[in-house]
Design goal:
single chain, about 300 residues, 6-stranded mixed beta sheet
């Protein structure tokens, strides 16, 4: 049985989820949410008759704090933490990750993410692309899917895919959008990763932001791809016009909000998207992407 565990990030339902799968070898947890919401996840586990100690396997899509912040808590309770090779060292020693995140979130770090602590090295297991982990009677396969982050995996078992952030953010009645965040946004890789998910033909696509897509998954992926292309082109065109980060933060926030409203979101849901995926981060991410990989396309 699969359960969506709501972290209730910042007291709001439907923003960040962990996905729990009951197996004959304990619970397999896909992402953990931030450490600031650990007690909320404990409460969600109790609703299904489980405790943190019953979580024996934690599969991280990537190591951003909203996805992996509580990994050390579950490792402390005895779980094995599975992660991409590029993310493993930052779980074991999170100092650089904290430094990078602090530049973005500043004094809001404790409120947003809680306590950051290392995962003991003996609890970390690195997974390679295509590697399969047997959990009870379930085979979980890691698939390397960069674009949002270079250290990103989706996980495939039976007819299910846990999509991490590369499969998009979709909240309430809103449409799927790509969470552009620094420093590893890479558009071409993202498009290839969407194709990898398509090729799996999943019946259910589990999203950390938020819940499960269990119908019309091809349309979800098509809409996501369209926005990856269109949003990146929007930034390219504004950069060609000479606009820089300070001039782009508010216009992009308005552009994204209008896109969400046109896609079926209410104004309240637009605010929830902003909580899950702050629009200002897309500006830093996209400017860095174009300047690093396609400088000739944004030259004045």
């Amino acid at each position: 049985m699969v359960h969506i565990l709501d972290t209730r990030q910042l007291g709001r339902p439907g923003i960040i989820a962990a996905t729990a799968v009951e197996t004959a070898d304990g619970i397999a947890l896909f992402d953990t949410g931030p450490e600031s919401t650990f007690q909320n996840i404990v409460g969600e586990l109790r609703k299904i008759g489980a405790a943190p100690e019953d979580v024996r396997h934690v599969f991280l899509s990537h190591i951003h704090f909203d996805h992996a912040g509580s990994a050390w808590r579950f490792a402390e309770a005895g779980a094995t933490i599975y992660v991409h090779s590029r993310g493993a060292r930052h779980l074991i020693d999170p100092a650089k990750l904290v430094e990078s995140a602090t530049r973005i979130f500043g004094d809001d770090m404790p409120k947003l993410w809680g306590r950051v602590a290392p995962v003991p090295e003996e609890r970390v297991r690195v997974l390679q692309d295509g590697e399969v982990v047997r959990v009870g009677a379930t085979d979980v396969r890691a698939i390397e899917t960069p674009g949002h982050a270079s250290h990103h995996h989706v996980y495939h078992w039976d007819e299910n895919v846990f999509g991490g952030d590369v499969a998009g953010v979709r909240i309430g009645s809103g449409p799927p959008i790509p969470p552009f965040v620094p420093p590893e946004l890479h558009v071409e890789s993202w498009l290839e990763s969407i194709d990898k998910i398509r090729a799996l033909h999943p019946a259910r696509l589990y999203l950390p932001h938020f819940g499960v897509v269990d119908r019309d998954i091809p349309a979800h992926l098509d809409q996501l791809e369209e926005r990856v292309r269109r949003w990146s082109a929007w930034f390219r065109d504004r950069m060609r016009a000479g606009e820089d980060e300070p001039q782009l933060i508010q216009p992009f926030a308005e552009y994204e909000a209008a896109d969400l409203l046109a896609g079926g979101a209410t104004r309240e849901i637009v605010r929830d998207y902003e909580t899950a995926d702050p629009s200002f981060m897309a500006v830093t991410a996209a400017l860095r992407y174009w300047r690093k990989y396609h400088a000739q396309d944004v030259a004045l």
